[in-house]
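Backbone geometry:

***
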Amino acid sequence: MDKENLYKFYKTRNKSEKIEENNVLLERFVTINYLKKYIKKHNSVAEIGAGIRSYSPEIVKFAKHVTAIDLFQENLDRLSKRIKTSNFDTLCGDIVKLKSIKSDCFDVVFVNGPISHLFKEDEKIQAIKEAYRICMKNGIVLFNYLTNTPIIYRFGLIKGNYNAFKKKHVEKDIYETYFVNDFHKLVSKTKLKHISDVSLDGLFEILKEYTNKLDKTSFNKIKQIQLQIAERPDMIGCSTHVMSIYKKL
């Protein structure tokens, strides 16, 4: 992970991010519904990757305690200004090595994106192992990440970037993408039991030029449809954002 390039990327994105766009709101809607499904009111939760699209402001409403973890203190400072509840704190740290966190600390560990900024296999495995380590026995670990196939179609076919078909990344790139089965193979290095995969946005991210033109009534219907079909196997592979859910044995 190139931390300097990543910092510059998010510094620019902070000024232009449009969280109100339908394709983003759809992903958040499905994600929040699944977080509510797996997070109980007595749970302590770690959100790793609590950047500009952090879910901590929502999670603090239905969890006992939330710790937001991010690589950049600036993101955490911004988040602290938004969340003023006593059941919330922050920690600046790198998912590859969370030295200051003891093992078996959290009931739920939500890895919100940073796995998509790692390019070396050993770093990916180490990040997964760290999420596993800080989770309590019988706890839940959720990973949000980018899948490969929709990126290929969007940037290959739609934008004419045919190099996307090669699935070749270098350190200066910002995002890494995964085939879901390959992600499961990485996770198999730990004693995490696979529960489910969730399609967070289906085809609606790929076709976001159309998704973002939907009126409120139509979009509300789409949200309910996506939630109903989110775990269908045929939906997983076409979703740009996927959540894979595991239990720590």
The chain has a mean pLDDT of 89.
